[in-house]
What does this fold into?
Amino acid sequence: MSHKPEHLSTGVIVPALNCAETIDRALASIAAQTRPVDRVVVVNDGSDDSTGERAKAWQDILPLTLVDLPTPTGIWNARHQAIEELDTRLVLQLDSDDFFHPAHVEVMVDTFRRRPGLISPRPLIWRGGTDLAPSRIHKDTLPREGLSQLEQLLVHNYVFVGAMFDRALYHAVGGYRPIRYSQDWDLWIRMVEHGAEVIKPHDATYVYRSGAPSYSAGVDRDITDVEVLDTYLRSSVSTRMRHVAKIALLQRMGPRFLDRCTPLDPDEAERRLHAAGLAPGADVLAAASDDDLGVLVQTRRAGPTTAGEAVTVLSVVDHDLRTERLRLRATGTGLQVEHLHEPHLRLRRPPSAGAPAPNPAHPDARRTGEET
It folds into this structure.
């Protein structure tokens, strides 16, 4: 005798700020789903255009609740307020300038039913017109099987913005926190640390609008990444995860990370390098010690360098004399990490220098600096 599968109730949250030109398309995509949703919550986060009125017009078509906030509070709070309005088991996120493929909810829920966890959609890229392109960003290849999902997540935010999760899990980890940007990354880290597994469906069904303005336009992603990692470190007690988080910080901060550490005498640095079997082969520029990493030594590479570039090596010698080496190339476009011993801990994009605008020449560049 067959049993009817349990109904998994679904709610979609849509934070909205001055998106009168796109909110109808986003809500229409929810109405067109092959698997109808149980609730939709739009939080109009202090818009000064007709966003609220346009969303309200959908209440005769969708089971939609509109929350009007008098002034902008930030995307973290808009998402949190929306989730607090829900009574469904599952939460799906949709940005107001993106939209769902008609099979999106069905694909996401079926994936959750097979393997409950944090479901990260595979995106399609839309640049206007009628064509949708598959995404080719590096984060789509993550997480790699057989490696710690949390370790990989501390280096790369590989969970896409339109993720789906159990509302009980959201509350268990404390929900969204007031971080300037990358609030979703902060949430995903806590969910995975809590035990959730990141699952990605086979099919791409979340349509991401490339090149659109949003809440966090002009934000320096490295500054905000550092904020997320520092927030994680304030509560983490895992020796290994603290090590990984600081390796992630090193790749975003480069030699500036040494300013956070305890200065070390260059002679002591040389001694530690030799004890670890590493002859620096270049001048020691700076050295410091860190409680989680051990000794960090910055050396200048011997030999000629490309004009306009400064190449240095950061050697990390931990308390057991194990070593990791990062070769850093400082160029006009930022700090590029060329090598790291553990490949799954390598940051696969050049961190930003200052707060440049997203590069329109990169077809899959996240409009607000989402990692590529």
